[in-house]
Amino acid sequence: MARSARKVLLTGWFSFLDGEATAGDVLALHRVRSVLDHAGIPYDVVWSPGYRAGGPHLSDVAEDSYSHLVFLCGPLHGPQVEELHARFRRCVRIAVGTSVIDASSPAVRGFHHVLARDAPGGVSPVRDLAAGAPAPPPHRSWGWSSPMGRASTGGRGAMTRWRGR
After folding, report:
1. Which domain holds residue 84?
2. Could you check whether the bond before residue 147 is cis, i.e. omega within 30 degrees of 0?
3. Does residue 150 lie in a domain region?
4. Residue 119, pLDDT score
C-alpha cells in the first residue's frame, strides 16, 4: 500500500489496551483535532477497545496509511510508548502536551519532535493543551436510579411506569 500523502494518526494513553483516558487527555485530543480540522489535515484517532469498542484500534491501523503519528498528553515512558516507535517507524512521530520523566529513555528519544508540557532540568512548563480545547456543544442529560424493591419509593414498578417502560 502506498503511504498516505498526509494523514495523521492520533494516539495517547487512551489508545493502549491497558491505558487510561483522563478528562485532560480527552480535552487535549479535542484541541488537537480542532487544529487539524481547521488546517484541513485528515486524521484518525485510535482508542483502546475498552473505551470505544467500534474502533479503530491500534491493531486495526496500518503504518503505511499515515505520514505522521501524534502522541498526546500524559507521560512519555514505558514499553507501550516504545512499541509505537517500532510499529510506526516510517512515520514522523511527534509527542505534544506530554510529560517527560526521563529525556534519555527510548520512549522519549523515539520521537522526532517532543513538545512537552513539562520536563525535568529547568525546562519551563507550557500551557496544557486541554486549556485550549473547544467548548463542547450544550446537551441535556438526565438519569435516574431505582432502589429495587423499596416500598417507600414505590419500588421499580412505579418509576418504570412513570418513565413509560
Report:
1. 8-134
2. no
3. no
4. 80
List pLDDT tens digits, range 25-39. Answer: 888 899 999 999 999
Structural domains in the chain (count): 1
Burial tier of 87 (Cβ tally within 10 Å: 0-12, 13-18, 19+): middle
Q: Given the C-alpha cell 485528515, which residue does it identify?
A: 42
Closest C-alpha among 114, 106, 117 to residue 83 = 106
Length of the chain, in residues: 165
Query: 142 or 49: whose pLDDT is higher?
Result: 49
| pLDDT > 80? residue 148 | no
Tell me: the pLDDT tens digits for 67-80?
A: 999 999 889 999 99
In a domain, 159, yes or no: no
Flag whether 149 is in a domain.
no
Alpha-carbon span 11 to 91, nearest angstrom: 13
Indicate whether 116 belongs to any domain: yes
What's the CATH number where 70 sits? 3.40.50
Sheet holding 113-118, edge to edge: 43-45, 8-11, 68-76, 92-100, 113-118
